[in-house]
Design brief:
- This protein is an alpha/beta fold and about 230 residues long.
- The chain has one domain: 3-Layer(aba) Sandwich (Rossmann fold), CATH 3.40.50.880.
- It has 5 helices and 13 strands.
- The strands form 3 sheets. The chain has a 9-stranded mixed beta sheet with strand order 2-1-3-4-13-12-11-6-9, with helices on both faces. It has a two-stranded antiparallel ribbon with strand order 5-10.
- The relative contact order is 0.21.
- The chain binds glutamine.
- Glutamine binds next to helix 4.
């Protein structure tokens, strides 16, 4: 049984839980999702971690009382081999822990660098990450309303095959700074790096949990299986 911690900081948590369950089904893995709400939930038994998107400032403020963010960062320092998937605000927190710690993703990141909420967009992303199962599974793209926190409506559409690209959903997305990129780019939007891998840490500026293409969640589960210390 694989145990994955899901940081319940704020933002798109439930969609990540759904994506993790879907990925576990695709891989035939027994999965327990551990919602991490307080520092004591961040136990050493976790095999991996998801830091969802949302609003990083709110996350930092909201987690002060319970020291949740600190506990998550401590866990990541204690278990450098175990995989972490940080999406959007999650990637911001990993690239900029802001408390004197060594950054978990060795790259600079600019918040909201694509503009405001209205400038949110969907675009095809090219992924260079080996993920288990790259068979021709048809995918559907999820959509949501203008507000990031409306319940998610998932609709099917004539979707690209997994191998041709990835449906990137960018919501008030941050941008990696290519002039300070000291880890491996694994996802591109044209010339722009939108996903990076630093050891066992994966940071994406888009929202893979809002699509039905589970390859990043499958990556997390398979890395967690391989790298368990
Ligand atoms: N703009 C948000 C921030 O600065 C990130 C957006 C997101 O996670 N969708 O934290």
């Amino acid at each position: 049984m694989l145990s994955i911690g899901l940081a319940m900081l704020q933002g798109a948590r439930h969609e990540h839980a759904e994506a993790l369950r879907g990925a576990a089904r695709e891989l035939g893995i027994d999965l327990e999702i551990v919602p991490c709400r307080t520092a004591s939930d961040v136990v050493d038994d976790l095999d991996g971690l998801v830091l969802p998107g949302g609003e990083s400032t709110t996350m930092r403020i909201a987690s002060r009382y319970e020291s949740l963010l600190n506990a998550l960062f401590d866990w990541m320092e204690r278990h450098p081999q175990r995989p972490v998937l940080g999406t959007c605000a999650g990637a911001i927190l990993m690239a900029n822990p802001e408390d004197g710690r060594t950054r978990f993703l060795n790259v600079s990141i600019d918040r909201n660098a694509w503009g405001r909420q209205r400038q949110s967009f969907e675009a095809e992303v090219t992924v260079m990450l080996e993920t288990p199962i790259s068979s021709k599974i048809p995918v559907a793209v999820a959509s949501r309303g203008a507000s990031t926190h409306h319940p998610l409506e998932v609709h099917s559409q004539a979707a690209p095959l997994l191998d041709t690209g990835y449906p990137g959903v960018f919501i008030r997305a941050p941008r990696f700074d290519a002039s300070d990129l000291q880890c491996t780019p694994i996802a591109m939007l044209g010339e722009e790096v939108v996903g990076v891998l630093d050891g066992s840490r994966l940071g994406l500026t888009f929202h893979p949990e809002l699509t039905l293409d589970r390859r990043f969640h499958r990556w997390l589960l398979s890395e967690a299986t391989l790298r368990g210390e």
